[in-house]
Design a protein that fits this description.
single chain; mainly alpha; Growth Hormone, Chain: A; disordered C terminus; transport; MFS_trans_sf; MFS
């Protein structure tokens, strides 16, 4: 073939410039705001982990199993309504639905300020799950609808940075609020609940006016950028051979619920999220146990800062691991490798002989989990489209919420049963190794060979 003519070259350069500009604007104008919503979402969801060792556990007379159940019961309401919520988002639009979710969860989170006993704590945690149902898969679906596949890992990584940074920033923030004991006549942990709930309500109101449902409606994009995005996304959906495609209502649910790929990804995600929430809910309590185990003492702020330590390196690992996957193409080991590292490291942390080495090993686990998650979430949208994407992504995240409930309740129950965290954390490691094995199996399946539809899911490692 001959060399490209100057007109073809200039046209190609113009299209590349439009692409770069469009993706940059989305990265600056849209992703940070949705990430801020996720930051507040995750902070409200895990605030109970900061409250328990700083007064709430004693004031409400909670055992480890009761606290574990309170942590996990959140996910029951979330699980029941997750798929319907994501279908409603697809029908009514992300702007209205995500704003509604934020305001209602903020109101429920505010009520934790006045909880009086374990039964009220259970009810409020359940209602918080009902109010939050659909937020995370809705945000993933929303961002996936704004960028082509080749940019999706990068965009989701920028969004996902909010989760580890929630603990990096949120743990010291929670510590500062807890130190305001007596403000408004409230115990410190109640002040903390008050302080972290109000931003959700305010942000939900702002989201109603700030978010835009689709690229064609974005005034901050030029017409050329809108046309390019609409054209690229439409061509991508049309080219998904063997995809679980656009459908409506029961057809969308049937398409997602009968997809073997969706169920396999659901189990893989279960393993990661089990590890994530076992750490999120019990790391502050484990750190409090250092005082007796290693004959030392920490202030409230000391414990908050130690809790934050694993998550800053995790944010760095997330960014660079996702960038590597974006530049070189997603491989099975981008998900399986971190799962193996996390599965091995979390039990090893139990045998360290100092707080510093224990936290160092737990940091490896946190880095592993967060490095894999945004890469993982770039996979479903490679073969799911339209309403089926809403249902399938919600189904996968539902498996994660089952893990969230199990991680809280089972970890607390096993700790009470065995008298320590060895047994529950070995279980965490086992689930993460299961995720690694399934990811490698999925990539190595004969039907995933080049030229078959399954290759759109993930390229096999080589």
């Amino acid at each position: 073939m001959g060399a490209a003519t100057p007109s073809h070259t200039s046209t190609g350069q113009a299209v590349e410039a439009i692409e770069r500009s469009a993706i940059r604007k989305i990265s600056v104008r849209l992703v940070p705001f949705v990430a801020l919503m996720f930051f507040v979402n995750y902070l409200d969801r895990t605030a109970v982990s900061f409250a328990e060792p700083n007064g709430m556990g004693d004031d409400l007379a909670l055992t480890a199993a009761q606290f574990g159940f309170a942590s996990g019961v959140f996910f029951i309401g979330y699980i029941v309504l997750e798929v319907p919520s994501n279908m409603a988002l697809h029908r009514f639009g992300a702007r209205r639905w995500l704003a509604r979710i934020m305001v209602t969860w903020g109101v429920v989170a505010l009520l934790f300020t006045w909880v009086q006993n374990s039964e009220q704590l259970y009810v409020l945690r359940f209602l918080l799950g009902v109010a939050e149902a659909g937020f995370f898969p809705g945000a993933i679906l929303y961002l996936s609808q704004w960028v082509p596949t080749r940019h999706r890992t990068k965009i989701l990584a920028l969004f996902y940075l909010a989760q580890p940074l929630t603990t990096v920033i949120g743990a010291p923030l929670a510590g500062q609020l807890i130190n305001q004991h007596g403000l408004f006549g409230l115990e410190g942990w109640r002040v903390m609940f008050l302080g972290v709930s109000l931003p959700a309500i305010l942000l939900g109101i702002v989201a109603w006016f700030y978010l835009i449902d689709r690229p064609s409606q974005a005034r901050w994009l030029t017409q050329e950028e809108k046309d390019w995005l609409v054209r690229e996304l439409a061509a991508e959906d049309a080219g998904k051979t063997g995809a679980v495609t656009e459908s409506h209502g029961r057809e969308a649910l049937r398409a997602a619920f009968t997809s073997g790929r969706v169920w396999t990804l659901s189990i893989i995600y279960f393993g990661f999220i089990y590890g994530l929430y076992a750490l999120a809910f019990f790391l502050p309590t484990i750190i409090e146990g250092f005082e007796e185990q290693f004959d030392t003492s920490f202030s409230v702020m000391d414990k908050a800062l130690i809790t934050a330590v694993p998550y800053l390196p995790a944010a760095v690992a997330l960014f660079f691991w996702s960038r590597h996957a974006t530049r070189h193409g997603t491989r099975a080991w981008h998900v399986a490798g971190p799962a193996i590292a996390g599965g091995v490291s979390i039990p090893v942390a139990l045998y360290m002989n100092a707080p510093s080495t224990t936290i160092a090993v737990i940091t490896v686990t946190a880095c592993s989990i967060f490095a894999a998650l945004p890469v993982f979430w770039s996979l479903p949208s490679r073969f799911l489209t339209g309403a089926a994407a809403a249902a399938g992504i919600a189904l996968i995240n539902t498996a994660g919420n089952v893990a969230g409930f199990a991680a809280g309740y089972v970890t607390g129950w096993l700790k009470d049963f065995s008298g320590g965290y060895h047994l529950p954390l070995f279980l965490v490691g086992g689930f993460m190794l299961m995720s690694a094995a399934l990811m490698l199996w999925l990539a190595a399946r004969p039907e995933a060979a080049p030229g078959r539809p399954e290759t759109e899911l993930v390229e096999a490692h080589r």
